[in-house]
Amino acid sequence: MDRNELGKGLAVITGASTGIGYELAKCAAQEGYDLIIAADETRIQQAAASLKEFGTSVQAIETDLSTEDGVDRLMEAIEASGRSVDLLMANAGRGLGKGFLDQDFAEARKVVDTKIVGTIYLVQQVGNLMRSRGEGRILLTGSIAGFMPGSYQAVYNGTKAFINSFSFALREELKETGVTVSCLMPGATDTKFFERADLMDTSVGQAKKDDPADVAKIGFDAMMDGEGDIVSGWKNKLQAAVANVTPASILAHQHAKMAEPGSGKE
């Protein structure tokens, strides 16, 4: 069976139950890609039902992407499909607010394991398959948070700094292989992130946020064009530019004013 009979191609999206991940999956479905979507919650099944309205094949995998076993389960589903992955959008992540010493360590580790360990494990496996084929597109969801020390979000911002850096390095390594790597770096986006991270009583939690559909479309288009990095929204572009020339100690102090518990009540 040739590729035309199978459809336009296969897109794999993690963290696709809600927010930016769901909207990225929607972008791919609207372009005619079949989907394998994954998340660690049952809501991924509801997302799949909605995405099937676009007329492409959608398979939902409920799995814990912070573990190697969880990523292996996703890889098994990819292998069972008999398809090559054309687009990989590694979006899975977790947030966590409050001071680092006040956080539950298991929760802090989950942030690291989901965004860093699980992500690079998945990217290495799918990336090797793409490289051997000589084609493929990878989009990682970083953040402008990765440009600044995240007081009261220290672990989360640290994971985003890693992803931002990792994506540029991997892009350079793969530049002659036919595989492109792009990094989407949004600012605060209107998703369930702030509620799940217990940040609703902070200034950033209360502030106006970007539309996840707009953010995803910007990232998806940039990935398809083979661009290396995408900061969505002019305010975020300005914030990223300022962060690059501002001392880290000042950035940490500014971030504290946004993310300190109770700062949204002032």
Automatic annotation (TrEMBL):
Note one Pfam family from the annotation. Answer: adh_short
**Keywords annotated in UniProt:** Oxidoreductase
Keyword hit for Oxidoreductase: yes
PROSITE patterns linked = ADH_SHORT
The source's domain of life comes to Bacteria
* Similarity comment text for this entry: Belongs to the short-chain dehydrogenases/reductases (SDR) family.
Identification of the protein by name: Short-subunit dehydrogenase
Could you tell me which species this protein originates from?
Rhizobium laguerreae
